[in-house]
Amino acid sequence: MNAGAAAAVLEHVRSTPRRPSESHTLSAEALAVANRPMAQPISPIVLAGAVRMAEFALVILVGLAIYAVYLPPGTGLIWRYLVGTFTVATLSTLAFQIADIYQVQAFRGHEKQYMRMASAWSVVFLLAIGASFFAKAGEMFSRVWLGSYFVIGLVALVAGRKALFYAVRKWTREGRLTRRTVIVGGGDYGARVIEELKRQKDSGIEIIGLFDDRGDARSGTEVAGERKLGTVDELVEFGRRTRVDLVIFSLPISAEGRILQMLKKLWVLPLDIRLAAHTNKLQFRPRSYSYIGKVPVIDVFDRPIADWDVVMKWLFDKVIGSLVLLAALPAMALIALAIKLDSRGPALFKQKRYGFNNDLIEVYKFRSMYVDKTDATAAKLVTKDDPRVTRVGRFIRRASLDELPQLFNVVFKGNLSLVGPRPHAVNAKAETRLYDEAVDGYFARHRVKPGITGWAQINGWRGETDTHEKIQKRVECDLYYIENWSLLLDLQILAKTPFALLKTENAY
């Protein structure tokens, strides 16, 4: 393995056959850790971006507030002060970035951040005053406004940072700003990684367990104060029961074969995977590494959608989903009425399906079968001219209108996205085999939230999945979507979905 390990490992893991995923029983220690209550995590990158926007807005509000108090709007000079405040806000944001105070470590209240903030703020005003002097524009702004802006603005910024310090301290104590980390590999290598991470107070790492495929005689039951919770097979089950953000391999690069075998099992989980590099004697160029605190690591896998991407996809689902739901409500009301008139029973029903990280979720659908023949677990796929399907059900299934109630899952429950891999029913089969038995790496499609429509559906792989080839092609499309996700791709899929629904040859 060399500096290009990430790409090579990724290709190797995807191209090598994998056995179907199996559920493994966890040890009592692993269950105790997995069952601990967790607070909703906060992305440090998103938090830093939110602080930038908040301080930008604060600087503008302070400047305009001083103008409103000292210079009444009737003076006709507001445009000058608008330009002035936006200029100061922009320059201060850039100056604070250069001063390196937009990091969670700085938010935790180190005194240096206040000194750096005051220095950067002073430089901004020196630049503004110097620029106005050379442009002969000094008379355009009140000196009282400028002096008050400097003092009150600095006080407001420091007060805001102090309030942020208390919030960050609370979030850190709750575990919302830490990356829940698992170490794979014990022995001396594992001990060195754990000790180095624990030595760094501001690494943002919370070690929640150690996993190793070797027996206790070779790697021990405890390494650097961390109990061994199980094997890598058990880590897959552990990662489905509790939030794991990061896995660090503490194995030497020479153990390439063991690392690849473990990666074949772990790549189905939605987490980051890193290989600790400071345990190895090979020295690559600094650019070959990323760093966790001061520990150099080689990036192997990244969570598919993280940080600001999560925020943007959430907004996309809520905003666009709400608009689509409002537009679809009249049609949904007519469909519900037709279902009630066509056969007895409720218009809606709930079906358990696999969601994000293999969690079971309940999705809403319009009932398309006779109420006494409804198959909530999809143990038997619907076929052409299936006698279980009602007259209205046959129509809405062919047009995929039975899926419209899943907009409630998107907008209100949040366990579905508009676009993503389609969620499959728990007992769905291709021929006589469950999907995860028929397709190697099937559960890798659950690394992102499932969707109402997806890349597979617009590429012709919708409807019945009665053969191994059909489910294989659908999973391949799902993995392509996960690896190439962007908002533009979501928009493209959403725009093409109505045209894909016109092809009904596989929809029964």
Describe the protein in words:
This protein has helices spanning 5-15, 28-34, 44-70, 78-98, 104-107, 111-134, 143-173, 187-199, 216-219, 232-241, 256-266, 308-342, 391-398, 406-413, 435-438, 455-458, 468-483, 487-500, and strands at 179-184, 205-211, 222-223, 226-230, 246-249, 272-276, 290-292, 295-301, 348-354, 360-366, 417-419, 429-430, 433-434, 451-453. With 508 residues, the chain is an alpha/beta fold. The protein folds into 3 domains: 5-13 and 23-40 and 178-301, 3-Layer(aba) Sandwich (Rossmann fold); 44-173, no CATH class; 308-500, no CATH class. It has an 8-stranded mixed β-sheet with strand order 3-4-2-1-5-6-8-7. A two-stranded antiparallel ribbon has the order 9-10. Helix 3 (44-70) packs antiparallel against helix 4 (78-98). It is flat and about 85 Å long.
Helix and strand arrangement:
Blueprint: H1 5-15, H2 28-34, H3 44-70, H4 78-98, H5 104-107, H6 111-134, H7 143-173, E1 179-184, H8 187-199, E2 205-211, H9 216-219, E3 222-223, E4 226-230, H10 232-241, E5 246-249, H11 256-266, E6 272-276, E7 290-292, E8 295-301, H12 308-342, E9 348-354, E10 360-366, H13 391-398, H14 406-413, E11 417-419, E12 429-430, E13 433-434, H15 435-438, E14 451-453, H16 455-458, H17 468-483, H18 487-500
Parallel strand pairs: 1-2, 1-5, 2-4, 5-6, 11-14
Antiparallel strand pairs: 3-4, 6-8, 7-8, 9-10, 12-13
CA-to-CA gap between the ends? 49 Å
In spatial order, strands of the major sheet run: 3-4-2-1-5-6-8-7
Shape: flat
Rg is 28 Å
